[in-house]
Specification:
The structure holds two protein chains of two kinds. In chain A, 51% of the residues lie in helices and 11% in strands. By secondary structure, chain A is of the alpha/beta class. Chain B has 13 helices and eight strands. Chain B is an alpha/beta fold. In chain B, helix 5 (77-90) packs across helix 8, helix 7 (111-118) crosses helix 9 (148-154) and helix 11 (183-200) packs across helix 12 (210-222). Classes of the chains: A alpha/beta, B alpha/beta. At the A-B interface, helix 1, helix 17, helix 18, helix 19 and helix 20 of A face helix 1, helix 2, helix 3, helix 4 and helix 8 of B.
Chain lengths: 471, 242
């Protein structure tokens, strides 16, 4: 199914719409508060943005070098570093590690890259049970769905839907729930998940950042499941993209000024974990084996291209949280792992420009995303570049191309243009009739399906102006 | 001051009164207003669609028509953005045109920015008996920084009260071709705008871009709101809106 068809379905889904309408003001309001509170620490958003943008740009300029340093330091601290070209390779590597360590259950903390790699499917196919332990991911996994938001995976679900899933999975009757019951429902999930933390032989996480100077994975979480997953199981596998590396802990501290604020408005997330190496002598917890799987999956292709800016992304979700299109549809309409403006850029870049032709067009160009992005990714410009690439690669429908050509040809011939627009004005006015509004317009049915087309008169400006000057 | 008025293709075809209101406003502010002949469209639709070559053709045409004037004024944030920000970028690598594009960009203004920032008008010709709420169009707001100017100008209209709507900076869902290509998504977005407008309870919703206004008016009427007036800021300031 194409984006357009999915979009139509989502717009008309009242349950989804209710969930989205509830979530949007929360996201926007919390971020606004968080950013405003920077002033309490005598910090300025625009200055910080410039600094964060600079950190990411400098890293990307020498990405190979920083990755080499990361590999060397991580290895020195006792971890193993593996490289994966694509998602399939990620699956093979993780299954292989699991088999070597006799793993039958893997507890997972949120990782969007594991979605790119279809890791859960790969594990299940190998007889290993993946258990999502982030609350939202847990809900999504029970529903047999994929995340619809990168930091709030189950944002598309209402409390009634979650209650039905929990009742079924936890073997109890369905109860009537209100938001006051959320703590109870969370406690219930926690009790179930606790058993998984204690019995899983492998923990799988992503990484918000990889810190080169220390060979460290940084995890930014709110629920504490990330700690469980990285300390209890004997094996910890970090699956993340090669672009996540940053040079120093100092850089990490700077980026942390904006990451949680941009995502949830928090000055800092409930948990910030810096994970280096394996369990050392005398320590009571931590994995005996730590493996980093650093994944390309299309990222290296963006280096040095017109799309390199996209690699700055620190996955805060602010772009989708401020996107009118995202909040009309939810994340599943976007068809792949990443939704919202970042998805409209990444999906064609990672899955093939010809496989996501609609996405770069599914934008009003409002730039609400670009103006909140903590690392100043010019998302509208990148979507525009993709539209230009579609034209240049001959991927637009011939009818559309001819229409633009004809229109531009006409606009280049003022006399003919005047003659035609005069006729058009009369035609539109005739269509509009007495109330001055077109209710069904065959030339733009997409407009009049939901709106009237107001028509102000039957003369063009230039026609009237000419007449006035003559008089 | 001699000023060229670039009326925009949408105003020309769909709502000529906006062009005449802009003309009256500029004349009332003491400008000699000329309407360059031959003007058609700035090429923004082609640019947005990724039709770079066509957009460049139309950009060159517009530059040729407009560069002879000291100042160009445009009653639209998105068309002004096209000329001010996109033309120089579009023609940056064209040796013959890049300097001309930049020169025009520096002298092209969105209407309210020109009135408030350049002319610093102290009065406007209009009176308006009632309340208005202002919708900030995206390109004007986020590409040109137009926020304070329309409000400062509205504050000079005797009888007018401004009732700000919540989320006045939220996109209305127009987006040019987007509104036709993704009509149902666009309608969903403008529905929220209509709710904000209804909650503000003003007599009229005012904005600086005709595309957004047609989208808002079209949806308001379809929802059954026959009373809230939908006006371009030029119409309100010039007195056409009473």
């Amino acid at each position: 199914m194409h984006f357009q068809a999915r979009a139509g379905e989502k717009v008309r889904n009242p349950v989804l719409q209710r969930a989205l309408q509830k979530a949007k003001p929360l996201f926007v309001g919390k971020r606004a508060k968080g950013i405003a509170a920077l002033a309490d620490d005598a910090l300025d958003f625009e200055t910080l943005r410039t600094t964060c943008e600079g950190i990411r740009n400098r890293t990307l300029a020498d990405l190979d070098v920083w990755l080499d340093i990361f590999e060397e330091r991580a290895t020195a601290s006792g971890a193993e570093v593996l490289w994966a070209r694509d998602g399939e390779e990620v699956g093979r590597l993780v299954v292989d590690i699991a088999r070597r360590h006799g793993v039958s259950k893997a507890a997972k903390s949120k990782s969007m890259l594991s979605e790119e790699a279809h890791l859960n499917e790969a594990l299940a196919a190998a007889g290993i049970r993946p258990v999502e332990t982030d609350l939202g991911e847990y809900i999504v996994q029970l529903a047999g769905e994929t995340p619809s938001h990168i930091i709030a995976p189950a944002v598309h679900k209402t409390i009634e839907e979650v209650e039905a899933l929990f009742a079924k999975e936890h073997g109890r009757p369905i109860e009537t729930r209100t938001s006051a019951d959320i703590p109870d429902m969370t406690r219930e999930a926690r009790q179930v998940l606790r058993q998984h933390f204690l019995t899983a032989e492998m923990g799988i996480t992503g990484a918000n950042f990889l810190i080169a100077e220390t060979g460290t994975a940084a995890l930014v979480t709110n629920e504490g499941n990330g700690r469980m997953v990285t300390t209890l199981p004997k094996v910890h596998v970090v699956v993340t993209g090669i672009e996540k590396v940053i040079p120093t802990l100092e850089d990490f501290a700077t980026l942390m000024r904006l990451l949680p604020r941009s995502a949830t408005g928090q000055s800092i997330s409930n948990y910030v974990s810096l994970l280096t190496g394996t369990q050392r002598e005398g320590e009571h917890d931590g994995p005996q084996k730590t493996v980093f799987i650093l994944v390309d999956n299309g990222r290296a292709n963006l280096l040095g291209s017109a799309y390199q800016d996209m690699l700055r992304c620190i996955r805060c979700g602010a772009c989708m949280n401020h996107c009118p299109v995202y909040f009309s549809l939810g994340g599943h309409a976007y068809g792949w792992v990443y939704p919202g403006p970042m998805g409209s850029v990444l999906t064609p870049l990672y899955t093939g420009i010809e496989n996501a032709l609609d996405l770069p067009h599914a934008t009003t160009g409002c730039n609400q995303c670009g103006s909140v992005c903590p690392v100043r990714i010019p998302l509208p410009r990148l979507m525009h570049q993709l539209r230009t690439d579609q034209v240049e690669r001959g991927l637009r429908p011939l009818s559309e191309r001819l229409a633009f050509k004809a229109w531009a040809w006409l606009a280049g011939r003022p006399a003919l243009y005047r003659w035609l627009t005069r006729r058009a004005a009369r035609y539109l006015s005739w269509l509009a009739g007495e109330d001055g509004r077109i209710h069904i317009f065959g030339l733009a049915p997409g407009w009049t399906a939901g709106r009237d087309l107001p028509v102000a008169g039957n003369r063009t400006f230039h026609e009237l102006y000419k007449a006035r000057k003559r008089a | 001051m001699r000023v060229a008025l670039y009326v925009t293709c949408l105003v020309d075809l769909m709502r000529p009164s906006v062009g005449f209101a802009a003309l009256r406003l500029l004349e009332a502010a003491g400008c000699e207003v000329l309407v360059p002949e031959g003007q058609t469209c700035c090429g923004q639709p082609a640019w947005s669609a990724g039709e770079r070559a066509l957009a460049a053709e139309l950009a060159k045409k517009a530059i040729g028509e407009l560069e002879g004037y000291d100042t160009v004024v445009i009653p639209s944030g998105s068309c002004a953005d096209q000329i001010r920000n996109i033309y120089p970028q579009l023609l940056a690598d064209d040796a013959a045109w890049s300097a001309r594009a930049r020169a025009l960009a520096e002298r092209a203004y969105e209407l309210t920015a020109f009135l408030a920032d350049v002319l610093q008008v102290s009065a406007v010709p209009a009176a308006f008996d009632g309340s208005v709420t202002y919708h900030d169009s995206c390109k004007g707001l986020r590409s040109l920084g137009i926020k304070r100017q329309p409000r400062a100008l509205l504050a000079k209209v005797p009888g007018l009260t401004l009732k700000e709507m919540s989320e006045c900076e939220e996109c209305c869902g127009f987006g040019g071709a987007f509104s036709v290509k993704f009509g149902d998504v666009s309608t969903k977005i403008v529905d929220r705008k209509c709710e904000s407008i209804a909650a503000a309870g003003a007599d009229a919703v005012v904005g600086g871009d005709l595309g957004c206004l047609m989208n808002i008016e079209g949806r308001l009427r379809r929802r059954g709101d026959e009373t809230t007036r939908v006006l371009h800021i030029a119409e309100v300031l010039a007195g056409g809106g009473t």
